[in-house]
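4.2 Preliminary Data

To establish feasibility before requesting continued support, the project team ran the inverse folding procedure on a target of 320 residues. The structure was first converted into the token representation described in Section 3, and no sequence information of any kind was made available to the design step. The complete token record follows.
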């Protein structure tokens, strides 16, 4: 039910939907190398890609690492699928600089690469499919400033080597720098992990007991921060906004335990990867794509989520 609710919310919130073209005439071998599938947003990328692969009749191998910093494991996975002679590889980089050598190796072997959700800082890719993370981070910052009004706020950042983590941080910091009533007092990484988010939130609150709000660069860290607030009997005293639109975060937003999440259309990212791969392979390498394919974002706060779910008669289910 929770995944259905999340899917409903994201689908209705999208400004535009790009349809998937008809099934390809040939069968290709694709690989999609992702970060940890224990993260709901990343699982959505995989599910969207698999659904599209089934639609197009292509073989899709999905691999994931054991964590958000498992660079060596991810490099080994990319090298392995190249040895299997796949036709095209999608990579969600765990470290945007660290993956450069293996992308350059794929370039030398004429294996096309598409970046998905997290880009690389070098090497040649056909396109980078993702949210505009800088813009989304800025939107989260502007939203938090409006909610807080004045006082202290913090950020719990993602993995330092991740392009998406850097961009979300930079956008959020820029939004805070555009005004003077709300002060950014702390910005600490928690590696996109829930347990680490809980620990970092504890440290931030210990140093800043009068904290008014926090932006967590993904929903897993936001849910970790929520657990810290729960233990301190402080839910509602600190405004929390996450990012991804994960089912548990949407439910927590409905309950007003956290106050918002920046929606990403992660399933659509996976679908777009497969569609783009098939189009490129069908064209025998002549198709071109924008360097950055923006899949969009939206902010879902408690009022919006409650109103939307009520309109679909889903409130009783959520209260169980």
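Position-by-position output of the design step:
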């Amino acid at each position: 039910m929770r995944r259905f609710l999340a899917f409903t919310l994201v689908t209705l919130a999208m400004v535009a939907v790009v349809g998937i073209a008809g099934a390809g005439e040939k069968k290709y071998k694709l690989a999609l190398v992702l970060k940890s599938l224990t993260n709901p947003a990343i699982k959505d990328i995989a599910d969207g890609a698999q659904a599209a692969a089934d639609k197009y009749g292509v073989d899709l191998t999905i691999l994931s690492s054991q964590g958000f910093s498992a660079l060596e494991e991810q490099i080994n996975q990319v090298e392995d699928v190249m040895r299997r002679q796949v036709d095209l590889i999608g990579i969600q980089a765990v470290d945007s600089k660290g993956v450069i050598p293996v992308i350059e190796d794929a370039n030398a072997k004429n294996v096309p690469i598409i970046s998905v959700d997290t880009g690389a800082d070098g090497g040649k890719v056909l396109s980078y499919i993702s949210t505009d993370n800088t813009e989304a981070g800025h939107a989260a910052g502007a939203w938090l400033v409006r909610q807080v009004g004045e006082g202290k706020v913090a950020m719990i950042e993602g993995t330092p080597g991740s392009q998406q983590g850097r961009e979300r941080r930079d956008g959020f910091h820029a939004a805070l720098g555009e005004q003077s009533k709300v002060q950014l007092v702390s910005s600490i990484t928690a590696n996109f992990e829930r347990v680490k988010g809980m620990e970092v939130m504890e440290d931030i609150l210990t140093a800043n007991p009068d904290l008014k709000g926090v932006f967590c660069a993904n929903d897993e860290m936001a849910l970790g921060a929520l657990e810290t607030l729960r233990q301190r009997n402080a839910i509602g005293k600190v405004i929390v906004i996450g990012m991804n639109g994960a089912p548990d975060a949407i439910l927590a937003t409905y309950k007003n335990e956290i106050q918002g999440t920046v929606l990403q259309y992660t399933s659509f990212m996976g679908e777009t990867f497969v569609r783009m791969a098939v189009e490129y392979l069908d064209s025998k390498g002549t198709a071109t794509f924008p360097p950055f394919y923006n899949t969009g974002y939206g902010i879902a706060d408690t009022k919006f989520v409650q109103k939307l779910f009520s309109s679909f008669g889903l409130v009783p289910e959520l209260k169980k």
